[in-house]
Model the fold of this input.
Amino acid sequence: MSEVYEILSEMGYTLKDYGQYYRTKPLYRDSNNPTILSIRKDTGQWYDFKECTGGSFERLVQLTLKLKSEDEAKGYLSKNNFEQPEFKSRPRVAQSAKRFPKESLDKLLPVYDYWTKRGVSRETLMTFGGGIAEKGQMASRYVFPVFDGRDDLVGFSGRDILNYKNSARPKWKHIGNKSQWKYPLKVNCEIIKESKEVILVESIGDMLSLWEAGVKNVIVTFGLSLGMGLINFFLRYEPEKIVISLNNDSGSKAGNNAAKKMHNILLRYYSEDRLSIKLPTKKDFGEMGKEEILKWNG
Done:
């Protein structure tokens, strides 16, 4: 058992094993999230996902014990025979999401027929921007722009509008690092913070159907897996409830099985009472009318 573990336990931390890290609740501030503080097992280096702060083991000891300085914390660690291990770290290369010029959106045609025929209003579509691409990788798709928290354009999600039968052409095509996307937080971030509840759906189409019914605390997963961008968002803003609402696939059960897997992943970070699986009553929300969605959400 490491010295880091023994010292943290002595200070009152209850630790969960996450490979190279421990996860726990911060004792230096109020929190009911038992995994929001990450601490390296070997060095005690830590990171608080809610506050977006971190630092040395000495700093963590200082904060926890409410000491006046890190020197006092070093004295405490010395009394407990803690020695900072020597290790060589590889230089880290900062990785940032690829950004696209916003001028590229000017090439999209503001033609909304594909969606309005499916019950999505022009007003809703204009809220999320985008339009039909005539050329390039997204040709003959209705393209939604994806922005990050700094309002930079970091990707595109395009819905095929040709609908050729028996075609290998995928229904949705994505450009950008979708594992880091948090869509559509540019539009509904404050709604989610206020409601303290998040509904996870597979596609933008599902989100649009819920939005039309007045259900706006929705985040799109862009498939059957949960990206680290979303997990980090949840850890930072600590929603009281996360509802997993992937597609209700009667044949392959792909959405049903993925929902269970997503639930198990989130159990690493949240207690059971804060998570639920609530699939659409039909295959997806696009097949449900407004009244059906309101009943589902009631």
